[in-house]
Amino acid sequence: MKKIFLLLVILGFCANFVFAQNVDEIINKANLVSYYAGKDGKSKVKMIITDSQGRKRNREFKILRFNVKDGGEQKFYVYFEKPTDVARMTYMVWKNLGKDDDRWMYLPALDLVRRIAASDKRSSFVGSHFVYEDVSGRGVDTDIHELLGEEDGFYKIKNTPKDDQGIEFSTYAVWIDKNNFMPMKAEYYNKAGDLIRTIEALEVKDIDGHPTVFKSQATDFERGGQTVMEFSDVQYDIGLDDNIFTERYLRKPPMQWIQ
Amino acid sequence: MKRIFFILFFIFILVQPSFAAWPQIHGFIETDYGVKLSDDDTKRDNYNLFEQRLQLRANHYFSGDNYLAQKGGALSFRGDFTVDEYYSGKTDFELRELNLSLTPVDFMDLKIGRQVLTWGTGDYLFINDMFSKDYVSFFTGRDDEYLKKPSDAIKASLYPKFANIDFIVIPYFTPNTIAKGDRLSFFDSFQGGITGVNSDRDIIKPPFQMSNNEYALRFYRNFGSNEGAFYFFHGFDKNPRSYKNEALKQLYYEPVDVYGASLRGPFASGIGNIEFGYINSRDDSDGNIRTVENSFFKTMAGYTKDLGNDLKVGFQYMYEQRLDYSEYRDNLLPNDYRWDEYRHLITNRITKLFKNQTVMVSLFTFYSPSDDDGYVRSSVSYDISDQWKVTFGANLPWGEDDTTEFGQMKRNKNIYTRIRYSF
């Protein structure tokens, strides 16, 4: 009897181990698929922000991305086009792992390069319902991942932050496409277990062998309102230079990549 | 000034065939109104800001086979048409930007023409940024954009491997716009107190000649996430702090050289910055000429932190020391005003955004324990839509004495409102 019990414990332990490895593998793949496609990339982004009273605002910008290390450090460059009061503003992020990102903003009317304190990755990105982490990725090591099961071609994974300080949700579930590892939906829950926020990929296309989100939506169920993000002119491996992600090009946008 | 305009106009004519299409024009139209909260002897009792403004801006990127297109040439234009009710509906045009930028060789960018220039690490505090500012706009409540005055300049930015270098030549001197008694009252030493329209001092600008060119140089580079910079400036103080001829009530902008350095980077889960500068007063290096401002040493340290939920706070401390103080003191005459040797200044900024970042509440406070003065600058703005924006704000300088930086501005307290339509 005891032996059987012991065997069961050992088996259970092993199964858990295999399972755990599996879920981290899935999360790592999903992270690479959604944020690291190609060596670099560019895209045009249109955001339609709708507040709880149905008022709409638009944001349009170009985004350039450069992978310093696959699954690791990245650099982003954002060139704003609309609304017109922020047109020609540029924004740069050096995404770091294990320490705060470095962020800079250039205000052309003031010729001012401002360094932005960036400890809060859960704050809204340009007033939308997406937060910074949705745009640049949430560190895979910041959560404990748990595979809840497989349903309709998706892995369903529960994620619990290791450190919940300053985080508005208590857990979130993510549905990852089993075929291409693209996260298709995420649901965020508060402590009481209420659904407070979702992010959905509404349209995914294949570009040069990389599954690519062309339309996504973030919905806020607590305060109401949602943001639709539409991507166009997506290109990978265009040969961006690390040099573009410096103060020089913050002040003088690299028009060959922006136009 | 006119010369640069003509040069650019000629470039424009020459390259005009390469314009594929006329550039898009954007800008805004706005109305500003600022009510005075204190009495003084300026031109108007009720308000010190009442104007309509139309800003137009356009950019053109050259295309085709010509030289400018191959070298990434671009023209930038930004200009403001104003109707100023403070001066009974006076109309004006202010050219804020008209410049040509290009990359003639890979490691160098050039920007020629009228441009806004800024560097340094302070927030509303400037040590190595010796470019001209408009403090009348600042104290009356115009948008922050108008604190920076454009300069007519040639800027060469070089990017060798080891560092980045900016070198600027400013052939035409542009002073700070400061209170002169018509719109804002200030301390006028010739009048012996806070003065309005009675001020009749005469400010002499350095004449337009080669030897009066201003030069500004910055070396900067990143060390990981940290940014270090060295600065040098050769030119003139942008405020008239020295006397040319006391009997004629003449002031002038004394020539200065500024040497400085700064460091900025992540610190204690926020952003920290330090900067210092040594300002050598070239006409009075030893400090014994009583009519000319002495040399200075200035330093500051700042810290900004993001507290989450769109709440940010920042603190700064600045220290200024008038050098060769004993020489200065020993050469004063009995009736002269005697300025202090030291000044300590602390600032605080709190910014909070609400409602999907469409409402911004901002409070900026200056306080000098040594001068016993300060300045509270607060504003609330609301983006009604992508086009419409309203702003309410207050400018509340105060001080025990009439002679200190903020104390002399204490009768200019105001609240203002602005409505802007962007297109």
Q: Would you spell out the secondary-structure blueprint of this structure?
A:
The complex is a heterodimer of chains A (259) and B (423).
Chain A: H1 2-35, E1 40-50, E2 56-67, E3 74-82, E4 90-95, E5 102-107, E6 112-116, H2 132-136, E7 143-151, E8 154-161, E9 171-177, E10 183-189, E11 195-207, E12 210-220, E13 226-236, H3 247-251, H4 255-258
Antiparallel strand pairs in A: 1-2, 1-13, 2-3, 3-4, 4-5, 5-6, 7-8, 8-9, 9-10, 10-11, 11-12, 12-13
Chain B: H1 2-15, E1 25-36, E2 47-61, H2 67-70, E3 74-84, E4 90-105, E5 108-116, H3 135-140, E6 150-158, E7 164-170, E8 186-188, E9 193-195, E10 202-204, E11 214-223, E12 226-236, E13 242-245, E14 250-252, E15 255-267, E16 270-281, E17 296-308, E18 311-322, H4 325-330, E19 342-354, E20 359-368, E21 373-383, E22 388-399, E23 414-422
Parallel strand pairs in B: 10-14
Antiparallel strand pairs in B: 1-2, 1-23, 2-3, 3-4, 4-5, 5-6, 6-7, 7-11, 8-9, 11-12, 12-15, 13-14, 15-16, 16-17, 17-18, 18-19, 19-20, 20-21, 21-22, 22-23
